[in-house]
């Protein structure tokens, strides 16, 4: 929480803290929301969260069993007028282009997802993906379900083979296109080449997403921002904006 507040007060960035259901009761979540409201934090990403592996954990003891419960709680907080902005917190939720690992039935999954969005989500941030077709299909399925909030695409650049293996562990069920696997295999013993391949692949993903009117891109950096900076600079976002600006 200290880091979120420091970013808010000492930089021009807009931090979006992640608030999770795991290991929290209502009082703890309310205290967090009050603290963020006093610091004029504008947005929160409401997540179910990953179960801890280093301590005994009983999910039934959590006040919020699912992210939808947390979304509803934040909305009630907003309605109380406790936030200095009359709109309250903007609330984001997670989306899963490749399907939620806990819900193999994709039709039921979309019903649950729509209920979560309808509970008060203002935008969606997706889990990472490596095949843009999964994202575009997810966006279409959201439209079919009458979900019309902005959908922000989650991209994670591969910067090392160890990081690649970690991605596979963190994002269980993620699909890795053969094109990416072949490119990494050809240079797996050359760390710098692996990094270049990963950055180039993510850059191509981003170009394709932007060309297809993505609402935004969220980078999963694993606390290493170098690759993201290279990608952002290479995308030429200011140039794109200038090119799209109407002439007077």
Q: How many helical elements? A: 10
Derived structural class: alpha/beta
Instruction: Kindly provide the radius of gyration, computed on alpha-carbon positions and rounded to a whole number of angstroms.
Output: 19 Å
Average pLDDT figure: 90
Number of strands: 6
Amino- and carboxy-terminal Cα gap: 45 Å
The side-by-side strand order for the widest beta sheet comes to 1-2-3-4-5-6
Structure, explained:
The protein has 248 residues and is α/β, with parallel strands linked by helices. It has one domain: TIM Barrel, CATH 3.20.20.220. It is 48% helix and 12% strand. The longest helix has 21 residues, at 191-211. Mean pLDDT is 90; it is low at 243-248.
Task: Provide keyphrases for this structure.
6 strands, single chain, six-stranded parallel beta sheet, 10 helices, TIM Barrel, disordered C terminus, alpha/beta, 248 residues
What is this structure, in a nutshell?
The chain has ten helices and six strands; from the N terminus they run H-E-H-E-H-E-H-E-H-E-H-H-H-E-H-H. The chain is α/β, with parallel strands linked by helices.
């Amino acid at each position: 929480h200290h880091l979120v507040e420091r970013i808010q007060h000492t930089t021009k960035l807009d931090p979006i803290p992640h608030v999770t259901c795991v290991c929290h009761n209502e009082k703890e979540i309310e205290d967090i929301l009050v603290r963020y409201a006093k610091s004029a934090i504008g947005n929160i990403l409401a997540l179910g969260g990953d179960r801890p592996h280093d301590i005994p954990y009983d999910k039934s003891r959590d006040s919020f069993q699912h992210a939808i419960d947390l979304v509803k709680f934040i909305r009630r907080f907003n309605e109380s007028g406790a936030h200095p902005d009359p709109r309250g917190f903007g609330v984001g939720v997670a989306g899963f282009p490749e399907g939620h690992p806990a819900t193999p039935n994709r039709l039921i999954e979309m019903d649950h997802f729509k209920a979560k969005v309808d509970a008060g989500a203002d935008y969606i941030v997706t889990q990472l993906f490596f095949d843009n077709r999964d994202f575009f299909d997810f966006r279409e399925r959201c439209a079919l379900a009458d979900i019309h909030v902005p959908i922000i695409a989650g991209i994670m650049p591969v910067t090392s083979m160890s990081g690649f293996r970690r991605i596979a562990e963190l994002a269980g069920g993620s699909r890795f296109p053969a094109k990416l696997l072949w490119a990494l295999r050809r240079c797996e013993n050359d760390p710098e080449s692996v990094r270049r391949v990963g950055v180039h692949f993510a850059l191509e993903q981003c170009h394709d997403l932007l060309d297809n009117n993505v609402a935004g891109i969220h980078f999963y950096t694993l606390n290493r921002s170098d690759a993201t900076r290279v990608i952002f600079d290479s995308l030429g976002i200011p140039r794109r904006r200038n090119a799209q600006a109407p002439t007077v």
